Amino acid sequence: MTKVVNTTSYPKEKIRILFLENISDSAVKNFRHHGYVKVEKITKALTEEELIHEIKDVHILGIRSKTQVTKKVLEAAKKLQAIGCFCIGVNQVDLKAATRNGVVVFNAPYSNTRSVAELVIGLSIMLIRRIPDKNKAAHEGIWMKDAKNSYELRGKTLGIVGYGNIGSQVSVLAEALGMKVLFYDVETKLPLGNAEDARNLKELMSRADVITLHVPETSQTKNLINKNNLKYCKKGAILLNYARGEVVDLDALRDKIIEGQIGGAAVDVFPWEPEKNGDRFQTPLQDLPNVILTPHIGGSTEEAQMNIGEDVAAKLFNYLEKGITFGSHTVPALALPPQEGSHRILHIHKNVPGVLSAINTQLSKANINILGQYLKTNEEIGYVVLDVDKKLSTQALHLLKEVRETIKVRVLY
Question: Given 100, 296, 329, 410, which residue is catalytic?
């Protein structure tokens, strides 16, 4: 059988792709390698006003964590097909507005897992050995050769709050170093290795020598670590936050470090962060003993950025060229095989009763044969993929645009 080779109906040289925030060159190269020539890369984030101006003719937008894609931005993005978030989270995008506008939103939730996990283990070693204080003293010309309050990780208990992709990877590395692992998650998770599931957060914090946070930013996790539960920590415990900036009450943490309840901390994410390199930065945790502060670089390695670039770019290609939406946070996830001898049409609509019937009625009245049809819905929208006779695809496209509740429709190939 002859292999089916499909190309997008819309010329690739006309598709405009905008990458912000210095996204990895691997993503840019991938798009150009696939024949997309209008690829623009900007090293910084854009303000809402700037983005509204830039996005009018953009089909694909690539961002990281700083750019805010608001409802106003999405309403101005008349040609926008998809947003690629080249990072773990998608909270910088108004997902409800993106859903209503039929814009697919992808991210890379797993690509920097190893980078964060390795750093957490490294920081745990540095803090439990009180290396930050000894390093500072050495730079100031003071010799501090002392084993007091300096410990090995082996045999200590690591408490992991949030046992997802990163938390479970940290669990594996910690056990390899001889640590006992205790974790707490709001969802039931299968323990890896010899890890134990804590009954609640209080139990975890009272038993752990080192506590590391790996939870998303939600209303439930805001100030999850506060003055009320920090008091449960073992005296001298170490706390690491490489999750989200709003998860820890930093003023409360500062007080507990000064009191000696918390023996050290490493924090990478903050409630407020500067917009660009070189900007002034302030936090209550500055100038405290045995504290390591890093500028939101938990997943910032060359390997992670390359993996993220390739992962998100692949998802965008699959949607642009095949209509596949696996990994989408807005349009329902759908994968489908190619159909020989047909043209494929993608139809995104409001999820109300009768739309699929209206689609089939419109095409049936025009004697347009449907060779293949796939449908998936979520609470707000439905996503239909139709394979129709090549000779009648243009007519089918016009008919589908007239269906009530249509948000977006396009011929894929």
Answer: 296
